[in-house]
Structure formats: C-alpha cells, structure tokens
Specification:
This protein has helices at residues 6-11, 27-42, 60-65, 82-95, 104-114, 140-152, 164-173, 198-206, 227-239, 258-267, 282-285, 304-311, 324-328, 340-372, 375-394, 402-409, and strands at residues 14-20, 46-52, 70-72, 99-103, 124-128, 158-161, 180-182, 214-218, 245-249, 273-276, 291-294, 316-319, 332-335, 412-413. The chain is α/β, with parallel strands linked by helices and 414 residues long. The longest helix has 33 residues, at 340-372.
Length: 414
C-alpha cells in the first residue's frame, strides 16, 4: 500500500486529548496553546481537548477563547492521589480520544495512565520540553518521575522533543531512544516581528527615560535561569565603559528575592535595573530592546524567548544549554553556562556593533525564524504526526516505528 499523501494525512479528523502538568506561564504551556490555536484556525477536523493536572492557569482563558474544552484535576505539585487518578480516568473515559498527547514529565506519566480509560487501542505520544545535561541538579521528586518515565517510555508510540540535544540526553538517562521525534517550537511571525516604534513604546511602558542600550531577559524567577550571573555580567559591561540598562521580565520577577537583589547590589546601581512580572504584551515591546540575553545554567531545551526575539529581529546571547546555539544560528552568540567572562565578551561585542550591526544580526535571526520556526508550519507537522499515528492504530497496523511516523509527518526521527 502506498503511503498517504501529506494532504490526506493532515485532513484526517480525530479528538486529541492533551494532558499537561499545568497551564501556567511556561515554554511548554505556551507551545501547547499556540498549537491548539493554530489547529482551531485551520478547521481541519483535528479536535483538541486539554486536561491540566494542576488548577487552571494563565493560559486557560486563551484555550477557551479558541473553543478548546479544558479540564483540570486541581492537584498540587507531585503525583496525583487516588481521587486525582479517578478523575483523570473519568474525564478520559468521557472523551474517548483518538490520540493521547502528554506534555512535560508529569503530564506524560498521566497520559500513560489515561490509556486505561479508552475502550480501544489509541496512539500515545509524549512531549518532553526539558534538557537533562546533569540529572543531579534536578529535585529528588523530578528524578523519581524521570526514572519512572524512562521505564514507561518503552510503551509509548513516540516521544516528541523540541530539542535534539535533549533527546540525546534523555536517551542517555534511559528513555527509549528509538521513540524520539524532533519537532522544534513555533512562533507567530505576524505578531512577533520587527517594529521601529517599539523602542519608544518600551520606554513608556517601563518608565525608562535614558537611551542606554537595553539588555533584556524574559524568564520566570527560577534558579535554573541564573539571573544573578547576568547581573554580574552587565556589571562588567558597565565597568568596561559600556553602560547598559538591564530589563528583567517574567513571572516572579516583580519580587526577585534576596539572593538576586544581593547580586545586583554588588554589581549594578539600582537605577540600572528594571523589574517587571508576568506580562501578556511581550510582542508589543520586545522589538524595542537592543539585545536579549538568556543566562540559564541548566534545563533549557528550546527557549521560547530566543525564537520570539529572533522573530522580532533582536540579536541574542544565550548560554549553551539545550539547543540554544542551533536555534540562534547567525542570529546570536552562544557562551558556556555560568561563564560571566564569556557572556560579558559576547554582550560587549553586540554593544560595539552599534545599532546598524545589531539590526543586521537581528535580520539574520528573523530570516532563520521564518525559515524554520513558523507556527503554521510546525502545527502542520503535529497534525500530520497525529493523523499518521491514528491511521496506523485504526487500520490495526501493529507496532509502527517512531521513525516511520516522523517520516510521514515531515518531522525528524532521532
């Protein structure tokens, strides 16, 4: 039998039940919402439903606006109790999905459990959004879920990774490497785009009156992001005569904490740093920053902020965690994690390029985003992957390799 055409695959309908750890602000959650929105916009017969293990988060409203049914188990962090598992099985039994898609470690394990409530054989896919260079830096509870996931991974039809590096690291930990499929993150290139007026908008929104170059980091307040390293780096820039303003935006950054404030106090005058918490208007002002920095020490797979900055034509400097270097290409510079000297040298180079040089690097990043990370193209890969998996399950094709599913979907096996 000839393989179906991509058009035929993408047209096949089905109910896809996404099971995610949470719907709070985060890279995985953002990609899930963008995927659902893109699916709804195309009206191609793929019907999503989303179940969150934790209580409704910031992204719930967007999902409901797109017409996507959403459910929650209301559980606290950690493993679901017996009542949570019963509710998971009851909701899944009611939906009777054509495909189960887990998101993040706890959501993946829950998706494996949810299979028990489906009356027929349906495909099970996981989605891993975290890199794993050193498992010892993870919390003990996370390591326990990782160990369980490694054992369960042999019974999954495919594991989607947004990072090739993360796929290799998880295989080394014990995840079934033959299940790996690579689909990168995607971005709305209409909403995230260069804007010559964004600089004035940015300064008005954040009350910035001077015209010093702005180094921005958009990330939640978490130790893995290593904000203190970036503060020390910008302090070194200032000492070298390159006086920049540091803009730190993200969930929890309006209450940065004593350790970060101490690092900033030792490195920078308070008037050189602007803090802001979670914001929904990042696309409106991000094109106005001079450069984006990401100082993460571990954990990143495909950082969304790099793709968003590139789409906006903003050059980036990021630590070499996950696929950051591959994501940026010529649109940025990559440095070792925790290396203040290397980060300072890279940011100094961008400052010295001047406005014209930074625009040229930003344009290269924008071109790369258009070529590889358009959300519409990424959504097509997901739809084809889902439809291919459903088709094989419906036809009773038996065990189908992840590489065959990826090939039919236009994705990449690893």
């Amino acid at each position: 039998m000839n393989a179906p055409t991509p058009a035929a695959i993408s047209a096949m309908p089905g109910l896809v039940q996404h099971i995610t750890t949470s719907l709070d602000v985060g890279g995985a959650q953002s990609m899930l919402v963008k995927l659902v929105e893109a699916t709804a916009a195309k009206r191609n017969g793929v019907r999503p439903a989303v179940l969150s293990l934790m209580p409704p988060g910031s992204f719930t409203h967007r999902l409901r606006q797109s017409g996507c049914p959403t459910y929650t188990l209301g559980m606290a962090r950690g493993y679901p109790g017996p009542l949570g598992i019963l509710r998971l099985l009851r909701i899944t039994g009611m939906l009777q999905p054509d495909l189960l898609q887990g998101w993040m470690y706890h959501g993946n394990v829950a998706a494996s459990m949810a299979q028990l409530a489906v009356k027929r054989r349906v495909p099970l896919l996981w989605n891993v959004r975290h890199s794993l260079a050193d498992p010892k830096v993870e919390k003990w509870s996370s390591r326990a879920v990782l160990s369980l996931s490694a054992r369960l991974s042999r019974n999954v039809d495919g594991i989607i990774y947004n990072s090739r590096t993360a796929a290799k690291e998880h295989a080394a930990f014990g995840f079934d490497g033959s299940r790996a499929i690579h689909i990168p993150n995607g971005f709305d290139l209409v909403r995230y785009r260069p804007d010559v007026h964004a600089g004035d908008r940015l300064r008005s929104l954040f009350g910035i009156e001077d015209r010093r170059p702005i180094v921005a980091m958009v990330a939640r307040n978490h130790p893995m992001k290593d904000h203190a390293m970036l503060a020390r780096t910008v302090g070194k820039l200032r000492m070298s005569g390159r006086d920049c303003r540091l803009l730190l935006v993200g969930p929890g950054m309006d209450t940065p904490g004593a350790a970060l404030m101490q690092a900033i106090g030792e490195s920078l005058p308070s008037e050189s740093v602007t803090f802001a918490g979670e914001r929904a208007d990042v696309a409106d002002w991000l094109p106005g920053v001079d450069m984006v920095a990401l100082s993460s020490a571990w954990g990143e797979a495909f950082p969304n902020i790099l793709g968003e900055a590139m789409a906006c034509g903003v050059p980036c400097v990021a630590t070499d965690v996950g696929d950051s270097g591959w994501v940026m290409g010529d649109g940025g510079r990559c440095v070792p994690p925790r290396d203040v000297q290397a980060m300072a040298a890279a940011l100094s180079g961008l400052v010295d390029l001047g406005d014209e040089g930074r625009r040229a690097m930003g344009a290269a990043g924008r071109s790369r985003a258009v070529a590889h990370f358009d959300i519409n193209d990424i959504a097509v890969r997901y739809r084809r992957l889902y439809a291919s998996a459903v088709r094989h399950a419906t036809q009773g094709s038996g065990s189908v390799s992840a590489s065959a599913l990826a090939s039919e979907a236009g994705a990449h096996s690893l």
